[in-house]
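Memo to structure team: turn this sequence into structure tokens by end of day. - J.P.
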Amino acid sequence: MTDRSRRGVRIGAAALCAATVLLVTVGASPALTQTEEDARAPELLLVDATGDPFVVLRSASEPAQVTIATGGVAAATESPIALRDTSIQVQTAIVIDNSVESSDLLDAFKTIASDYVNAAPANERIEVWTTGGGSRVRVGFDSTDSRTLRVIESLVPAAGSNNLWDAVRGVSLRFEDPVPGATNIIVLTGTVDGGSENSDILARGSVLGSGAGVFMVHAGKTISSAEGQLVSVSAGGSYALETDLEKLAAYGPQLSAAIQSTWLVAFDGEAVPSSTSITVNVDGSVVSGSYVFGSVAAGRALAPVSLPPPTTLPGLGFLGGQTGRLVGLGFGALAAALGAYAAVSLFSNDPSGLDDVLQAYGSPLGESAPDAGAEKGSFAKNLFLRRAVELTEGLAEKQGALDRAEATLERANVPLRAGEAMTAYLGIIFASLAIGLLFIGGITGLLAMGLLGVLAPPAVLNFRASQRKKLFSNQLPDTLFLLSSTLKAGYSFMQGVEAVSHEIEDPMGGELRRIVTEAQLGRPLEEAMDASAERMDSEDFAWAVMAVKIQREVGGNLSELLGTVGNTMTARERLRRDIASLTAEGRMSAILLGALPVVLGGVMWLMNKEYIGVLFNETLGNVLLATSVVAVIIGFVWMKKMIDIEI
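Reply from structure team:
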């Protein structure tokens, strides 16, 4: 069988395995459609324990039976009354995104708003805001429904971005005597905030202060973390994601039904003054909360707020839907193909190997000899790795990185070829990414561990090389003195180098032994010493080699010359250490100032994660964090340059 036919067999087997894996994966994958959630569970919005106690709750339909207990003691409970039929004023603000980016969605948003106004009770007060190019009140709470509908129909796209947070904060401050459950904000948007003067934190604080419920209809597949938090902290809020314009325009009646499904239930609880806990059973569904007698409890005082689901990075939202699943299947098929090819290659022989080529000449029986394949097992185990190394070497050589990698490996005394080291480096990067996804999760884990995998191996290699270079420089004066002594004892220069190489420790001893070996193999001694100086990146050794070259050309006492060079290097090393002691305070200041933000940030993270989490969860926080990191790096480099004195 020829090489080409063997290669065809391996590729065919890999393709067959990949196709099998792909068919199994597709056949076993769940349906790609997304089902809507069932009817919402009841939510406790408010407990009024000031006078005649009552609760406000929201459920998908009118409760048939409600029982209330305070402190475990059942209370006489009245029938639920729709909140719109009570004396509590229902107020709803509709916030419409009419920015240029959402111009294609504006007609659907206008339909939603109009349908909601038409379905609203006569006594409900409605206000309309727009966010495009700046937040504006289009219709106040005191306007009639007919005027509100005319204004909604007349809305047009506005130049500028979506100022969502300004509008939400402005709405929250305009509610009069807000009551949780009766105060609601409907947000119709298709883009994230892009130019508000107020931050999302201020908007959430205003919503919490008003006790409003936020109902967000987002024309997309995902919402941002800030939008999810806005909904989660509101009183009984929720959000919907929709990409189909026809379905999007039909959300008006659903919003009306959700907001009108709010009920007031009065009860006569004898245990109210002596208890702080309340339990409400709504048609078998139990919700509970806590209160303080003589006050009104709502929002976070009743129940913990759930966090929004994690979101993807900007521009990667498509990975969450049908496209994301197809991309995942594609990557899975590619991984299966590579794995199958690796498996087939691993257990096949490489006919181009030296042993295979010489096999026919090593035995009278040629390839039919009994032991012809006895030694192929160990090579086959490393075949795939060898091919990966060859591929990496080829790519690195094209990019000009192979020579630099070889020089760094030699300087660090790492016994690996450049291709092998670079292949291992790629393996470390992929392993770090996998660890980040599996054990940390999310984009944060992926970026953190990926960055560690990219930066750690070169940093370790450079540190090892710098330490070896420093030790080599420290050994150089003693080496020159020893070499001078051997010359005084009658040794030739070559004999002196060989004698000193056995007396002094590594790395100097190893380099001298390599110089001797290269010279014995025919390389000129000065050239071998130059190569060693370049390999160790040592200017001092290069100067010593230059002195030897000059002495050999012009003549003179080489022993005395080496002693003089050694004394000069000793004096330079003494001066270098004096400068290091004088600049120690500056170096320590640079280290402390550079580490202070990191250490202080870690302490704050341990003490109050929510406080410092703004830097990681908010857009403004990310910008400030990145700017701070850049400023710290610039300051650290600047201080280091000030105390870095060349000798």
